[in-house]
Every structure is written in C-alpha cells, then in structure tokens.
Amino acid sequence: MDISIYFEPVEINEFDNEGESPHEKLGNIILSYTNEGNFPLLEGVDIAIIGVKEDRNSKNNSGSATAPDHVRNYLYKLYQGNYKTRIADLGNIKSGWEVNDTYFAVKTVVSELLKAHIIPVIIGGTQDITYANYLAYENLGQIINITSIDSGFDLGKAEQEINSKAFLSKIIMHQPNFLFNYTNIGYQTYFVDQDAVDLMNKLYFDVYRLGYIRANLEEVEPYVRNADLVSFDISSIRQSEAPGNADASPNGFFGEEACQISRYAGLSDKLTSVGFYELNPVYDKSGQTAHLVAQMIWYFIDGFYNRKQDFPLKEKEAYLKYRVSINNHKYEIVFYKSKKSDRWWMEVPCPTNLQSKYERHYLVPCSYKEYQVALKEEMPDRWWQVYQKLM
Questions:
Q1: What is d(CA 209, CA 225) in angstroms, rounded to the nearest whole number?
Q2: What's the CA gap between 253 and 217, in Å, rounded?
Q3: Cβ count near 170 (within 10 Å)
Q4: 144, 306, 321, 353 — which has fewest CB within 10 A?
C-alpha cells in the first residue's frame, strides 16, 4: 500500500551544521520527506518518525498541532550515538476534513509500518491520537498492552465524545477489544477521581503514583518492557522542566527521568510503537520543551539500538530458571533471568486453550525485587493481576 498519500513534506531549513563531523547529525542521516515526489523508501528502515498536526479534540491545550516541526528543529541537530541509525521521517500526516479522518490516516499508516516491522515514533498533536494508534493493532488482530506516562488516566465516559482527556474509555469499550493490560506511570492523585482509581483496580490494570515511581525509577523498566504501545503526555513533566503545555503542573517528572523512561521504552524488545503528545509551542519558553522532547526521542532511539533481543524466550540455555513455592505449594511461580541482560520475567499459569491467544502476555516482565518478594512467600501484585485475567 502506498502510504505516501497520507503525508505532506516537512519544511526544515535551519540545521546547525557547524563544528566537527556534521554528517553525524541526525538531520543529515535521517531520510526525510522534504519534497513532493521524494517520499523515503522504507526498505531497511528501523524507525519512522510521523508528525500528526492534530488538536481539534484538544481539551484546554489548543496549539499543540504545531509541535512536530518544533521538535524536529531540535532533534535534527542532535548527533547519533555509537551505532548506525536507519530512520526515516515520513513528514506530517495531512489533517483530515474531520478528526476521524485523521484518526483513520494514523491507523492505516501505523498498521502498514507495523506489518513492515518498522517502529512508528509519533509526534503529536494531542494524546487522543493514542486511540488511532491502538486501532492499528486491530488490523493485525494483535492483543496488546498500553503504557501511558501521564499525570491522569484520561479515562472519560463511554458515552462521552472523545477528546484529549477522554479517550481511554473508547479503547476499553472498543469492540472487538484487543487490550490486555493498561499501565499508568506517574499519576498524581489530586488530578484523578477516586472512582477512576477503583475502576483501574477492578480491571486489574497497573497504576503507579508519581511519588512511588520517582522513588523507584528502576522499577519502571519492567513496566515499560511489558508494553506494545507507549503514550507519553508531556504534562506529566514538571512545569519548570517542560513549560510548553497549558496543563503544566509544578509537580511531575524531571527531564532526565523522562529521558530515562524513554530509553527504557526503546530498550523493550516487545514495544512496537511510541507517541509523544501535548507539547504546545504557544506556552513554550525558548523552545525548552521542544528541545526536551527531541532529547526524549533521542534516548528512545538510543535504547532501540541497544536492544538485547532476549524476549520472547528463544533459547532455554540463555536463561536461568528459578521456581518459588508460595502458600504451602498452592502456587508455584517460575522466574526467568536472562544471562544476556540480567533482566527478569515471571511466568503466569495460562489455560492450554488460551495459550495461543495470550502467548505474549503470560510471561510477565518483572524485577529482581519481585523475585525477592516471592522468596518471602508473598505474592507479587502483578503476577496476581495477570493470573486473574487469565483464569
């Protein structure tokens, strides 16, 4: 399928090529769609950058549609790491006559890229574009996990019109449903209705408060490693670090923490798409937020090119296997530790008739800390949550 019909070229004329080795800057390496009729060839490409200049369903953050090119102005000036990048910038998806037309374009493009084993990096635009990203997996018939880095859940109500603060319910209620698990990283309690927290618990979803995450940042790695799709709301970063958002708050992640989470996402062998949303240049100061998002994308790329390729399990001899009995042998948890990366997984029992359907979900990324919890004969929370879904 010719996906070029959905794109318009990008216009980036200001590259800082002064100094040493300018050819190593991303702006000179990325295959960019800058002229009509010169759409990049995707053969051999690992990552595709997509701008989505859409904010018509914005809730209090109109202006974010102009963000993609602002981010590119900083991203293109960064140097690549110690690896050979194979990245294409496909340009900006043309805004549809209606927002649903834009959603359809995003869905179609992302689906085609996924089929070609190319990872889409979406630069929004508003976060409701996550819904369109999710719909792309429907075309593949693939059950997925979504991780959102956000100060709230953006849940909304099933009967409510979709907007940037109310799209998750559309994903949960969509039929056929391809969502296995949703994880929120960094929610701030005063921005979240307690009923929404209760609902997340009833659905056995994983939600983690900002304070817990910031005190245990290394624990984010297995949470992100379990995701197929990551959606990053820039308002989750504190205002002093990222002022470019109408809902920016005094509290949130620091810039380096956001970059670390982005790198964790890149490192995940399972993750196949990522989006960065809600940057609004109208509120930005000296391009500070656009520059931070560019660095977050750089860290994602760096993580991608340092993937260990140790999931799913392929060669048994490449892993150490540990069995832990709990509750007088009522439950047995099997843990795997990769000899290549020292990363951990725990296996959750899955009925034989469901194993083909959930083959990517009953082996759950975890940390050494969760193995230690099991040794104390305590059930790891995430093991129990997945167990409830499978039984």
A1: 18
A2: 10
A3: 20
A4: 353
- Closest CA relative to residue 380, chosen from 370, 368, 390, 389: 370
- Tokens linked to 377: 């004969």
Asked whether 179 and 192 are in contact (CB, 8 A), the reply is no
Contact 201, 187 (CB under 8 A): no
Summarize the chain as % helix, strand, coil (round to 5).
Answer: 35, 20, 45
Two structure tokens written together for 92: 């900006």
pLDDT of residue 20: 52
> How far is residue 298's CA from residue 305's CA, in Å, rounded to a whole number?
11
Residue 253: is it exposed, middle or buried by C-beta count within 10 angstroms (0-12/13-18/19+)?
Answer: buried
Tell me the C-alpha distance between 244 and 290, whole Å. Answer: 8
Which regions of the chain carry the CATH code 3.40.800.10?
3-304
HEC profile for 172-212?
Answer: HHCCCCCEEEEEEEEECHHHCCHHHHHHHHHCCCEEEEHHH
Among 91, 92, 75, CA closest to 29:
75
Beta bridge partners of residue 363, listed in sequence order = 347
CA 386 to chain centre: 20
Confidence of residue 315 (pLDDT cuts 50, 70, 90): confident
Supply 343's token pair.
């990363």
Q: Which two tokens stand for residue 381?
A: 């929370």
pTM, two decimals, is 0.95
SS3 assignment, position 202: helix
Any idea of the CA torsion for 74, 51, 149, 42, to the nearest 10 degrees?
-100
So what's the pLDDT on residue 62? 95
Structure tokens at 368: 């050494």
User: What is the structure's pLDDT at 288?
Assistant: 98
Rounded CA-CA distance 71/18 in Å is 20
Q: What is the DSSP string of 329-354?
A: TTEEEEEEEETTT--EEEE----GGG
Reading phi first (left if > 0) and then psi (alpha if -120 to 50, else beta), residue 27 is in: alpha
Name the superfamily (CATH) of residues 3-304.
Ureohydrolase domain (3.40.800.10)
Q: Which phi and psi angles does 337 have, rounded to 5°?
A: -125, 125
DSSP labels for 143-156?
A: -EEEEEE-SS----
Extended strands (E) in 188-338:
206-209, 229-233, 273-277, 319-326, 331-338
As a whole number of angstroms, the distance between CA 65 and CA 323 comes to 51
Question: What's the pLDDT at 351?
Answer: 84
